[in-house]
Amino acid sequence: MDRRQKKTREAIFAAFTTLLAEKGYHQISVQEIIDAADIGRTTFYAHFETKDYLLKDLCEELFGHIIDTAMGLPSGHYHCTCGSAEDSVFLHLLRHLQENDRNILELLSSENNELFLGYFKSNLKKLILSQYAEKGLLKEKSVPEDYLVNHISATFVETVSWWLSRNRKESPEEMTEYFLTLIRPVVEE
Amino acid sequence: MDRRQKKTREAIFAAFTTLLAEKGYHQISVQEIIDAADIGRTTFYAHFETKDYLLKDLCEELFGHIIDTAMGLPSGHYHCTCGSAEDSVFLHLLRHLQENDRNILELLSSENNELFLGYFKSNLKKLILSQYAEKGLLKEKSVPEDYLVNHISATFVETVSWWLSRNRKESPEEMTEYFLTLIRPVVEE
DNA sequence: ATAAAACCGAACAACATGTTTTGTAACAAA
DNA sequence: TTTGTTACAAAACATGTTGTTCGGTTTTAT
């Protein structure tokens, strides 16, 4: 009575993600999701109160996951398992994104990306707060801390967004360098 | 046959703006706008193809206006008519916003602010491009110019957004200082 | 005064949403 | 293997929204 439930939930997520890759969020009707997931109408509403909650749940799962794994890494640096260099958490995030795990990239560059970029940013804030702010790595003291945390998160999101809008021509390493150029004046490296 | 048209257009804009101040964009139905503006259904659709176009037209008018007046000012500085000091264009923008001319502030802090902040940002880019980029005032040369222009615009929008979320406790002068602290490393003052 | 335009109001089809009802299939525990 | 519970399906439903159409009225310019 649980494996079945999980399976349909996944089916809905999958159908929804696929649809999001081809049209805007607001252009997608519940009926389309139902058809694509091949489930009954009742079933959909048994799982999700509304389309907006479906979106919310999906985002929490996706961004919660990607941020949580990054959370496990040490503050400004971490020992990369694939290479030997000490890399920034941000480089790790970009690499993770580039692998397009669970189609996050598709969503972030989809028609309604502001929606997903918003969720991304709010999750990022938690990361910055715990990895930088609470460890005293914020250099700039003449502006409020939460203003600074918000700025760093927003700057990273904008960086990712700019990267995607140009079809990821640059490498994650390059993008990390761009990003660090912008925030180096305010954070300890 | 023209003053009449303009009048109803204004009535629709006014009704729409009022509604936007109290509920989210997607929660507003065309019928509500029609009722609030006290016009016929046919008339609405004669003016705007759809609700989305109404939004677009409204934003173009509002942000186009505020940016255009700022465009008229000299590059990094301008002679303020009210004071005697030379102030940044950004201070001018914040002051203009604080006067809440045409209820722009209401929209920017409304439920769907991402929507309006998006329009705001895209208009800001034009300003930054013409007032800074094209005049060689961008210090940082190690990152692409449009990446930098985007960053400055985004940072300003985030600054405004943060300011609004705290109910404008700070003065425009303070906010300008916060903002300049963040972007001073990359632009000529 | 007259013709063109902008407007109103009501009705319309098409579609979307969320609920309800009735019934079927899966599954876990006895 | 039977039994009771839970998840699902199918269809119908009330409700509300959208954008259009049509007949008729008011405004405005000339």
Order of helices and strands of chain A: HHHHEEHHHHH
How large a portion of the residues of chain A is in β-strands, by DSSP E?
A: under 5%
Shape of chain A: elongated
Termini separation of chain A comes to: 50 Å
Sheet with the most strands: spatial strand order of chain A? 1-2
Low-confidence stretches of chain A: 75-85
- Write down how many β-strands of chain A occur, each being a DSSP E stretch of 2 or more residues: 2
Mean pLDDT of chain A: 91
Treating each run of at least 4 consecutive H or I residues as one helix, how many helices of chain A? Answer: 9
Q: What would you report as the Rg of chain A, rounded to the nearest angstrom?
A: 18 Å
Overall SS class of chain A: mainly alpha
What pair of chains forms the biggest interface? A-B, 22 and 22 residues
Q: Provide the helix percentage of chain A.
A: 55-70%
Question: Main β-sheet of chain A: number of strands, strand sense, barrel status?
Answer: 2 strands, antiparallel
Quaternary organization: homodimer
